[in-house]
Specification:
This protein is α/β, with parallel strands linked by helices and about 325 residues long. The chain contains 15 helices and nine strands. The two termini are about 20 Å apart.
Length: about 325
């Protein structure tokens, strides 16, 4: 549980996660907080001995905190739960039961729910049309999904050793690294199970949240860093043999590039605006075939058309993207 100045919501998150009992190890990683985060975590360590533990470190960002959690984790499976989010208890029990009975799988996929604080609404991302329910399968059995059905970190529980085998190490002082958690281990996954339960509740609406539009513009270099890391992680056309997995990974890359370019285009700063062409040049120089595939993807064709039409249309395009991907 990466935690930085989380005193206002850490209680809520911990109250749900500790319901897993003694077979769950809850690692609160205090990433150099200056508020009562560590104090609250210590309270839970005392109340739930053998379940909750606290790891403290100097501030290094979300990725650094995840790295620390993975370094010290002793559990068979590993899930990142951000401290401002929470888990649904009945779904949690179902997920634990599945992991207990299918203990050799590489990945468990569940639904996740966007919880919008500003209007009290929520949106559930389900995968029942993509994966059979409750069956151990490989990527070959994966079906094509809708644009909004991304496999994000919130929907994934990995086998811990798999994350270590793939050498997962996230960059420090960088937001948006959850995309690396959801993308980099995929080719290492040989067995997976999907269960139709709404486990993860993803809170949307804090003014300082990383997916807030103005925050994303200010942190565009970090979004670019993550996007480039994903682009260069694999030669998707030659290294990824399974066409279903390749299609998903290309879709993920298309989404990352589109979201990045949209925020670059709406920034009222010429120094930022030039970064879109720089990103496309980077992709073309790295892999011409990938460049063509991403450039011709539906979402990026729309982004390019909006850019040529004007900033107001780009802003409209951003709102459309938000409706598709539900990220803000």
């Amino acid at each position: 549980m990466p935690s930085y100045n989380s005193q206002d919501y850490l209680h809520h998150c911990l109250d749900t996660v500790v319901q897993g009992g003694q077979e769950v190890e809850v690692i609160v990683v205090d990433d150099g907080s200056t508020d009562r985060t560590a104090e609250i975590a210590r309270e839970y360590c005392k109340r739930f001995p053998g379940i909750v533990r606290l790891e403290q470190k100097e501030n290094g960002g979300h990725g650094s905190a995840v790295n620390k959690g993975l370094e010290v984790a002793t559990g068979k499976f590993f899930k990142v739960v951000d401290s401002d989010d929470w888990l649904n208890i009945p779904a949690y029990m179902e997920a634990l039961s599945t992991l207990r009975s299918m203990s050799t799988i590489d990945l468990l996929i569940t639904n996740y729910v966007y919880e919008y604080s500003y209007n009290g609404k929520h949106f559930v991302v389900r995968y029942g049309n993509i994966f059979p329910k409750g069956k151990v399968i490989s990527w070959e059995k994966m079906q094509r999904g809708r644009l909004s059905q991304m496999l994000l970190m919130h929907s994934m529980i990995y086998r811990t050793d798999l994350l270590r085998e793939c050498g997962l190490k996230l960059p420090e002082h960088t937001f948006y690294v959850d995309n690396l958690v959801a993308y980099l281990p995929l080719p290492y996954v040989k067995s997976l199970v999907y269960i139709d339960c709404d486990l993860y509740r993803y809170f949307i609406g804090r003014p300082d949240q990383s997916v807030n539009t103005q925050v994303m513009i200010r942190r565009i270099d970090q979004q670019l860093r993550v996007t480039r890391a994903m682009i260069t992680a694999y030669d998707v056309f030659n290294e990824i043999e399974c066409k279903n997995l390749r299609r998903h990974m290309l879709h993920y890359l298309s989404m990352m590039v589109a979201i990045t370019v949209i925020h670059i285009n709406i920034a009222e700063d010429k120094e930022i605006n030039c970064k879109a062409d720089e990103l496309w040049d980077f992709i073309r120089q790295y892999d011409e075939k990938l460049y063509v595939a991403l450039r011709r993807s539906f979402i990026n064709l729309c982004v390019d058309l909006a850019r040529k039409t004007g900033r107001n249309v780009t802003l409209y395009g951003l709102n459309v993207a938000k409706r598709i991907y539900k990220f803000s």
